[in-house]
Amino acid sequence: MSTTTLERPAVVLSTARREAGQQRQSADAGGARGFSSAGAGEKRKSKAGSKRSHALSKADWGPLGKHPDLDAIVARQRLHLPLSGRLSEAQVNQAWKRCAGEHHPDRGGEHSTMQLVNGARDLLLGRSLS
Fold this sequence. Notes:
single chain; 130 residues; 4 helices
């Protein structure tokens, strides 16, 4: 029986695939794979460890951090501080002194307002009652 022209391309394709597979296997065995600069047997370093994470750190969620919680925002409002961004202890203390000068009971302010100002300073500086 003679082979038809339709059967021949299938045979040619299958042998071409086998040859390409053998070339790939020989290249894998040699270690020259892809654009990697790592040689055969060398362990590749992950770049993920060297990049900074996009997630917020624990410091960012603190009262002085970038993203304050609701209580810290209210405390910032009481002391007339920016509602977001990092604050230093010096900024908090200066704002507290300014507000204490206004609201101190000895200077005509209310006792309850002074307590709120003191509580705002304590919350922003991380001081607790216990």
